Amino acid sequence: MLLALVAALLPLLAATALTAPTAAAGEPARDASRAGAVPAATLTEVTNFGTNPSNLRMYLYVPESVTPKPAVVVAVHWCTGSGPDMYNGTEYDTLADRYGFIVLYPSVTRSSKCFDVSSPQALRRGGGSDPVGIKSMIDWTTRTYGADTGRIFATGISSGAMMTNVLLGDYPDVFAAGAAFSGVPFGCFATTDGSEWNSACSGGTITRTPKEWGDLARGAYPGYTGARPRMQIWHGTQDDVLRYPNFAEQIKQWTNVQGVSQTPTTDTPQSGWTRTRYGGTGDRAPVEAVSLQGVGHNLYAQGMASRVLTFFGLDSSGPAPQPQPGACKVTASVNAWSTGLTASVTLTNTGTTAVDGWKLGFTLPAGQTVTGGWGATYTPASGAVTATNVAYNGTIAPGASVSIGYQASHGGNSAAPAAFTLNGTVCAAG
């Protein structure tokens, strides 16, 4: 009888080991259905956090001095890794101690320990699989801590970088920005046969036009017309796992999604690095890409997380709420008729220093073309438009505003413009 009992239990124990690995020593588990805030300054597992179709595990790090309405950084691990591995292998927890944000570490339980970035379910909003579980983790965290839903960010390494691309495509209304280390574009790894691996994509042989890549990302959430997350992309020229052509394909995709030019400004932050910025020149350009000469797939190194925080806008000293997304605010309204419209745009300087000369970038909905304007010069007439100050309104004092406007034709879509940037800095929409 004892032998029969053991034989019956073994399959159950094996299944449990495959689907729910035990937490590492020293990691408290917290049942979200019974508890609120987790212990501070300790990596803690949270369970029962919400809909979780692929049985992910959730680990959370909350600093001692968490800010009111904190930002949340979702840090996504590599294949064969885990949430605790990402915690131990990166500096986001110590940076959270300094700046007061929360770090969320999703963790895969499937045998490969790779995130699902290939299935049809993963590549559409609310479709299922890993992105849905991660969204549930974010929702639990924002509810529990009153987190700032305008300051949710994603970053990842390898499989986690691919998931970062997927999350920003699936949930553009959730994430303010992402940073992908050694990844591939949204949709590049797509398969329909149940395989987790796409050799053509990993080998860098899938190339598309910027619009084709952009349409893939936009197709994850059909009908969405709001602002899109900014993206920071890192890749080594000698990557032999997710080969270097994927770097350029990601740039194509996210510049198209952002509606900005593919002509970059270029600098060298340190020896062997080439940084290109698109749609702006500041630390929070719509798209920023860093190429590391002679570096392979495992490119992440100490210090890079600090550069990610600069791109996210989370690196101001001391744990205090940070303005997001920048030192500007824009309101826009439209008065439309059958084939035309007029738009009124008000730009407010919410910073502490005067703006001396400005370029306001924004994206027109498809089918709209500027036919005239006032208060600024407008180029080009459609797509990603830049409005440049005229002689009399080039200076905007702190707290002051300037109003401009334009007339446009449209083919049926008379929506207001979106994705505003002031001299390369993303503006809040008011």
Described by strand count, sense and barrel closure, the largest sheet is: 11 strands, mixed
Helix share of residues?
10-25%
Number of separate helices: 9
End-to-end gap: 71 Å
Average of pLDDT: 89
Oligomer: single chain
- Overall outline: globular
Structural class: alpha/beta
DSSP strand count: 23
Low-confidence sequence ranges = 1-26, 317-326
Strand share of the residues?
25-35%
For the biggest β-sheet, the strand order reads 1-2-3-5-4-6-7-8-11-10-9
Q: What's the Cα radius of gyration?
A: 23 Å
How would you characterize this protein structure?
The longest helix is centred in the first third of the chain and has 18 residues. By secondary structure, the chain is α/β, with parallel strands linked by helices. 23% of the residues lie in helices and 27% in strands. The strands form 4 sheets. An 11-stranded mixed beta sheet has the order 1-2-3-5-4-6-7-8-11-10-9, sandwiched between helices. Strands 16-20-13-12-23 form a 5-stranded mixed beta sheet, with no helix packed on it. A 5-stranded antiparallel beta sheet has the order 17-18-15-21-22, with no helix packed on it. Helix 7 crosses helix 8. It is built from 9 helices and 23 strands.
